[in-house]
């Protein structure tokens, strides 16, 4: 039952994403397009989950755990992250980077390492651009996103989901 659900979901996503590819064929190869479409969709889902979590689930209140209090924006980030990170892995593994010879467990560990590196790089670039260079936060966030997307794509393609030539 789960296997048939997996095949249905995978094929539905591929058909939906690939339906729009002819518009972008002149600008990018299929794999890059799939990465952009899946990554963009997952990012939009992340933002939606963050918004709902922050405003309606957490109601902008501090989360009190036995040994720590977590601010609502960090708690919302964690909720969104732990939902969209496995979705991103699924999309990268079965839609974008199909055919890797690595075991799934190894792919997941590598994917998680790259995601963590992206979180750290995002933080460091924002600190550099805003606090050291004195740039405005929004253009800094946009430039940081462009840099991180490039790093993430190359890392996932050549490290997490490596394919034999």
UniProtKB/TrEMBL annotation:
Keywords for the protein's UniProt record, in alphabetical order: Membrane, Transmembrane, Transmembrane helix
Name of the protein in question: GtrA family protein
Domain GtrA/DPMS transmembrane: 34-161
A Pfam match: GtrA_DPMS_TM
Classification lineage: Bacteria, Pseudomonadati, Bacteroidota, Sphingobacteriia, Sphingobacteriales
Membrane topology term: Multi-pass membrane protein
Organism of provenance: Pedobacter aquae
UniProt cross-references to InterPro entries, sorted A to Z: GtrA_DPMS_TM
Transmembrane domains' residue ranges: 35-54, 74-96, 108-130, 136-155
Keyword Cell membrane set for record: no
């Amino acid at each position: 039952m789960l296997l048939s659900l997996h095949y249905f979901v995978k094929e539905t996503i591929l058909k939906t994403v690939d339906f729009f590819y002819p518009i972008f064929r002149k600008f990018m190869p299929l794999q890059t397009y799939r990465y952009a479409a899946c990554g963009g969709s997952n990012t939009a889902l992340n933002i939606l989950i963050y918004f709902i979590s922050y405003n309606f689930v957490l109601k902008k209140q501090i989360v009190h755990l036995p040994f720590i209090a977590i601010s609502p924006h960090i708690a919302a980030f964690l909720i969104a992250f732990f939902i969209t990170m496995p979705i991103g892995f699924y999309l990268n593994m079965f839609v974008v980077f199909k055919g890797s010879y690595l075991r799934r467990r190894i792919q997941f560990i590598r994917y998680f390492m790259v995601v963590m590196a992206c979180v750290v790089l995002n933080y460091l670039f924002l600190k550099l651009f805003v606090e050291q260079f004195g740039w405005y936060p929004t253009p800094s966030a946009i430039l940081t996103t462009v840099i991180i997307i490039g790093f993430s794509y190359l890392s996932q393609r050549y490290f997490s989901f490596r394919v034999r030539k």
